[in-house]
Amino acid sequence: MTGNMEGFSWKLFLLSCLVVVESSAQDFGQTQFICTSVPKDMDLCTATMQNSGPAEDLKTTVMQLRETVLQQKETIMNQKETIRELTSKLSRCESQSLPAAGPGGRRPGSKNTMGDVSRGTTDTLAQLGQTLQTLKQRLENLEQYSRGNNTVQANSLKDLLQNKIDDMEKQVLSRVNTLEETRPSSRNDTDQRNRVESTLTSLHHRITDLEKGKETRPTDKFQLTFPLRTNYMYAKAKRSLPEMYSFSVCLWIKSNASPGVGTPFSYAVPGQSNELVLIEWSNNPMEILINDKVAKLPFLINDGKWHHLCITWTTRDGMWEAFQDGVMRGSGENLAPYHPIKPDGVLVLGQEQDTLGGGFDATQAYVGELANLNIWNRKLSIAEIYNLATCNSKAPAGNVFSWTESNIEIFGGATKWTFEPCRSHN
């Protein structure tokens, strides 16, 4: 009888070992567990510590492991809940699909993530705004976990969130564009859309900081991204330019848009919307406009790689020079000679202005990435331009406009990303 009881105890202990192994393997992947025989009336952990090295150290290790396992389980459950809620909310938006093409001329298969037009743009935008605010709240939970943990699960969740938010952003912005083209929007609709776009921008910034594993970055180490041709996605300088009798403007640019990359920047003043513009539209080469006068620039940039551009100009005889990647590619004269660049204007990035600070045309919008836009009220030397293109420590910063986050406001879903010149090169 005693033998039978002992055999039963061994079977019970082995069964418990197998249960622990199976349960743990499901949670933590490939691991190894060792079962040790112990008297049937003794506590398992106590027996293990008695048979394995210094008891005090082992006890501490076991307790720490237990605590870690519990924390990991709790974290995994929270992350699974986050994914379920995120997927559920996205599914509710995506389930509102357009019908098949019929008398109304709608194309089959296109998603209507902002609801049917008949419901009104105000209702659908309000619904999306609420959804995005929920995403933002869930992302705050992820940030809190990410600060204290650097695990594969956290990184996987961040990737999932990034992909879903990117997909949602494209659908939202595309749908807003369609609504604007098909229906006149009221002021209330525009306010609703601006709030949604502001939330999208905030989400992108938070995701960026998480991906880089830090909460802050140097104020000049960033780039702007314009993923779509729209008439509302842009950035704006917070202050105007002064009167200038000469200037140099330099920037990093990356685009493969065709035809034409669009308008990297435009400066408009009262009475003249084309006071200073850099633009490449349709199949035309890139051009610089000063007081609506044009010079064609010998730049070749729409290859999807980072390029450094510099243009210098002086009012005397309208002399100009164009540099790409630190090398002069062309020069000319008689470009708005003896016309100083006027003050009290608006500097916009990503759009061409037909009116002061507005009148944007989607066909002339910039598509791509740009960074380190700096402007000087003098002509830079060839050596200074080369230092800028090669990220030399002696490279000067713009004395009229310098590339810092505090000098720029972004609108309409344009996004900021961390950028290191030359390190991020191509």
TrEMBL record:
Signal peptide limits: 1-25
GO molecular function: metal ion binding
CDD domains, alphabetized: PTX
Compositional bias ranges of the Polar residues kind: 88-98
Keyword Coiled coil among UniProt keywords: yes
Keyword Glycoprotein appears in the UniProt entry: yes
Residue ranges occupied by any Pentraxin (PTX) domain in the UniProt entry: 220-422
UniProt-listed SMART domains: PTX
Record field: compositional bias (Basic and acidic residues): 177-196
InterPro entries per record: ConA-like_dom_sf (IPR013320), Neuronal_Pentraxin_Related (IPR051360), Pentaxin_CS (IPR030476), PTX_dom (IPR001759)
Keywords: Calcium, Coiled coil, Disulfide bond, Glycoprotein, Metal-binding, Signal
Region (Disordered): 88-120, 177-199
Record protein name field: Neuronal pentraxin-1-like
Organism expressing this protein natively: Xyrichtys novacula
